[in-house]
Amino acid sequence: MEVLDKKKVSLVVEKLEKSYPNMGYYLNFKTPIDLLVAAILSPQTRDVTVNKVTPDLFKKYKTAKDYATANPDELFQYIKSIAFAKTKMNNIIESCKLIDKQYKGKVPDKKDELMKLPGIGEKTAVTILINAYGIVEGIPVDTWVIKLSNRIGLADSTNPNKIEKELEQEIDKKYWHNFAYILKEHGKEICGKVPFCSKCVLNEICLKNNVEKSK
Ligand code: SF4
Fold first, then answer.
1. Ligand 1 center to residue 201 CA distance, Å?
2. How large is the angle between the packed helices 72-79 and 47-60, nearest 10 degrees?
3. At which of 93, 118, 133 does a domain end?
4. Which of 29, 60, 121, 198 is close enough to 35 for a disulfide, judged by CB 3.0 to 4.6 Å?
5. Phi/psi at 191 (nearest 5 deg)?
C-alpha cells in the first residue's frame, strides 16, 4: 500500500490535533514510580481496569523499595483483576529491586537503562521518558498506532519499530509526545472496528477511505 506524502501527513496531524486538543497519557499516576508500575500493568488490560486498581495500590506502595520488599501475596491482592497479574507482579518487584539497588530508588531517565528492567520494552520506555521526565525520544507505537497509521496511510508496516521510524521521519517532533494518545482517541471515537468515515475529519485524506470510495 502507498503512504501519504509529507504534506498530507502534516494535514492529518493538524486535523487530529485540533479534534483532540491537550490529549495526554491515559493512565493515572503522580510519580515516576507510579507511572512505571501502571505501564507494566497496562498490556492486554483495559485502561479503566488499570486506573481502577492503581489508587489503592499507589496509596499502599509509594517507593521502589516499597515494591521491592513487598509481600507478593499482599501485592497480588491489589492487582488480581489485571491480565497476567502474576507475571506483571513479578516484573514490578524485580524492576523495583533493580531501581532501588542500582539507581538509588529513582526511575532511570535513559531509554537503554529502562529497557533493562523486566516488563519494560521500547514502547514503555519511550512512554516513561515522555510522561515522567518530558524527554521525547520517540513515538510510542501501540496496537492503535499500528492499526490507524496503516489505515490512514501514515505508515505501511505491521512492525512497530518500522512504523516508529516512518512516523518520526514524517511528523514534526513537536507532536511526538502525544501523537500515540491522539491516534488512540481517534480510534476509540471514530475509527474503531467499524470506522465511521462519513463523520471523520480525515475522510478526504485517509487512504483507506479513498480506497473504499473508489471500489
Ligand atoms: S476516514 Fe475512515 S478509515 Fe480513515 S481515519 Fe477516518 S474513520 Fe478511519
1. 8
2. 140
3. 133
4. 29
5. -115, 60
Q: pTM here?
A: 0.89
Q: Is residue 1 part of a domain?
A: no
Indicate if 129 and 201 belong to the same structural domain.
Answer: no
96 in any annotated domain: yes
* CA atoms of 70 and 156, how far apart (whole Å): 44
Counted domains in the chain:
2
Rounded CA separation 107/121 (Å): 15
Q: Which three cell numbers stand for residue 149?
A: 497509521
Q: How far is the CA of 208 from the centre of ligand 1 (A)?
A: 7
Ligand 1 centre and the CA of 186: distance in Å?
A: 9
**128-172, pLDDT tens digit by residue?**
999 999 999 999 999 999 999 999 999 999 999 999 999 999 999
- The per-residue pLDDT for range 51-106, each reduced to its tens digit, is 999 999 999 999 999 999 999 999 999 999 999 999 999 999 999 999 999 999 99
Nearest CA to ligand 1 atom 2: 197
**Residues 147 and 169 reside in one and the same domain:** yes
Cell of 1: 500500500
